[in-house]
């Protein structure tokens, strides 16, 4: 990753400040995008090579690129348009380059003529300016709907809710509420796994409910007619002890967006106050913020996204593959959510590229889940999440070590070593 000012590198700065340890990670996107376009083979009846469930960010890209490989594809989603939901709002350099490689960067919304060239980083009274490149804000919902427009033009998108999925070594069957179905050699689940879908696929979720992330998103604007004196800004609390991680300001089109990352419980008093008394809470938790950037006001509703860590069990599946958040959740504070999604896209497309349509049924799923790049990205996402939460709640190793050093027993041992008692022979 080439920019220290990206959101994930902002987290690195946050972790270094507390633990003096930099958790790094990166992914290399190697799949070329200039495949020779092939005419999409229209399937007879409701039988297809690939069926994708969920026309979100990850699922839409897989459907578009699988169709480019000449496979017959259908992607199913229960909603006509992707709703205005609070999800990833900033493209990191590796994510931007992956979308470039996939030939989809022009579909990202809003269209950006200028990138974020530098970000101011403030902690207490210390401030530094860090250059960056290929770093920009993104309207997630508008971008997904831009992908969906392409899906409609290629007649790949079907608006239907899913009742259940039957998985066999010979292929999969996706059953709709009216009893009709789509059959595929491979089914890609790229959406939140509902209770019914989890039951029909026999999935078991391995979760760590204590590993939680709650993110707040809202627009701000200057209280006066003046512009903000920065292009982008990251603000860190002076002490990482209350689950408060960091605050970031960045442009999305012509508006200034703010994301606040925490590991608070969504129903707790701190989260409730942040939602209802946003401006007052920001002033209280980040002293000196208004003096530095000038008076501002909240100019949109405050959106909240909460998730906890989980990973689905998938070893028993035959013709069904889970990608993105359907397989493993990720903390928004780490900045690697879209990296994990795009890593899954690249890994799966690489396998599809190497397979003929006739060999898709019963594909060895371990070739996807155990792919070195995918495992590294998945494990890195969990590691970063764990360190972010431990550091911001005073439960990091360094914090625990410091507290142990202050115990009476530790102080007595230190005194004994420093001032050894004389021993009578």
Draw up the topology in text:
Elements: H1 7-19, E1 47-53, H2 57-68, E2 73-77, E3 90-91, H3 93-101, E4 118-123, E5 126-131, E6 136-137, H4 140-153, E7 157-159, E8 164-168, E9 171-175, E10 181-189, H5 195-201, E11 205-222, E12 233-236, E13 244-252, E14 255-262, H6 269-276, H7 278-285, H8 289-293, E15 296-298, E16 303-312, E17 320-322, H9 337-353, H10 366-369, H11 372-392, H12 397-405, H13 408-418
Parallel strand pairs: 1-2, 1-10, 2-7, 4-12, 10-17
Antiparallel strand pairs: 3-6, 4-5, 8-9, 9-10, 11-14, 11-15, 11-16, 12-13, 13-14
Helix pairs in contact: 1-11, 2-4, 2-9, 6-7, 9-11
Describe this structure in words.
The protein is an alpha/beta fold and 425 residues long. It has one domain: FAD/NAD(P)-binding domain, CATH 3.50.50. The protein has 13 helices and 17 strands. It has helices at 7-19, 57-68, 93-101, 140-153, 195-201, 269-276, 278-285, 289-293, 337-353, 366-369, 372-392, 397-405, 408-418, and strands at 47-53, 73-77, 90-91, 118-123, 126-131, 136-137, 157-159, 164-168, 171-175, 181-189, 205-222, 233-236, 244-252, 255-262, 296-298, 303-312, 320-322. The strands form 3 sheets. Strands 4, 5, 11, 12, 13, 14, 15 and 16 form an 8-stranded mixed β-sheet that branches. Strands 1, 2, 7, 8, 9, 10 and 17 form a 7-stranded mixed β-sheet that branches. It is globular. The chain starts with 6 loop residues before the first helix and ends in a 7-residue tail after the last helix. Mean pLDDT is 85; it is low at 1-5, 14-44 and 415-425.
Compact description:
With 425 residues, the chain is of the alpha/beta class. It contains 13 helices and 17 strands. Strand 4 (118-123) and strand 5 (126-131) form a beta hairpin.
């Amino acid at each position: 990753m080439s920019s220290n000012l990206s959101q994930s590198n902002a987290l690195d700065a946050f972790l270094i400040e507390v633990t003096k340890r930099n958790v790094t990670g990166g992914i290399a996107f190697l799949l070329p995008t200039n495949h020779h376009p092939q005419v999409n083979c229209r399937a007879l009846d409701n039988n297809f090579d690939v069926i994708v469930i969920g026309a979100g960010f990850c699922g839409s890209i897989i459907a578009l690129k699988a169709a480019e490989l000449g496979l017959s594809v259908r992607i199913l989603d229960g909603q006509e348009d992707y709703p205005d939901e609070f999800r990833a709002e900033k493209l990191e350099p590796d994510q931007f380059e992956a979308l470039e490689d996939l030939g989809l960067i022009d579909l990202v919304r809003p269209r950006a003529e200028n990138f974020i060239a530098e970000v101011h980083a403030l902690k207490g009274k210390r401030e530094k300016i860090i250059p960056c490149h290929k770093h920009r804000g993104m309207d997630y919902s508008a971008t997904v709907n831009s992908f969906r427009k392409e899906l409609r033009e290629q007649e790949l998108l079907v608006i239907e809710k899913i009742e259940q999925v039957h998985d066999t070594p010979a292929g999969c069957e996706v059953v709709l509420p009216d009893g009709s179905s789509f059959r595929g050699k491979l089914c890609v689940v790229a959406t939140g796994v509902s209770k019914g879908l989890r039951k029909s696929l026999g999935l078991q979720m391995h979760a760590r409910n204590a590993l939680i992330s709650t993110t707040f998103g809202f627009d701000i604007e200057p209280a006066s007619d003046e512009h903000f004196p920065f292009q982008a800004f990251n603000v860190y609390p002076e002490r990482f002890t209350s689950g408060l991680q960091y605050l970031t300001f960045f442009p999305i089109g012509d508006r200034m967006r703010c994301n606040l990352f925490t590991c608070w419980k969504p129903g707790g008093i701190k989260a409730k106050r942040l939602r209802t008394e946003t401006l007052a809470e920001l002033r209280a938790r980040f002293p000196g913020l208004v003096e530095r950037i000038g008076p501002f006001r909240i100019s949109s509703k405050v959106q909240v996204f909460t998730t906890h860590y989980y990973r689905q069990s998938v070893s028993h599946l035959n013709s069904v593959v889970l990608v993105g958040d359907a397989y493993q959740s990720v903390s928004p504070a780490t900045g690697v959510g879209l990296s994990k999604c795009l890593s899954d896209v690249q890994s799966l497309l690489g396998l599809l590229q190497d397979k003929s349509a006739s060999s898709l049924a019963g594909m060895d799923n371990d070739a996807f889940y155990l792919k070195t790049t995918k495992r590294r990205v998945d494990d890195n996402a969990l590691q970063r999440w764990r360190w972010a939460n431990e550091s911001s709640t005073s439960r990091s190793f360094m914090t625990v070590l410091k507290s142990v050093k202050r115990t009476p027993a530790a102080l007595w041992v230190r005194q004994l070593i420093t001032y050894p008692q004389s021993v009578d022979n």
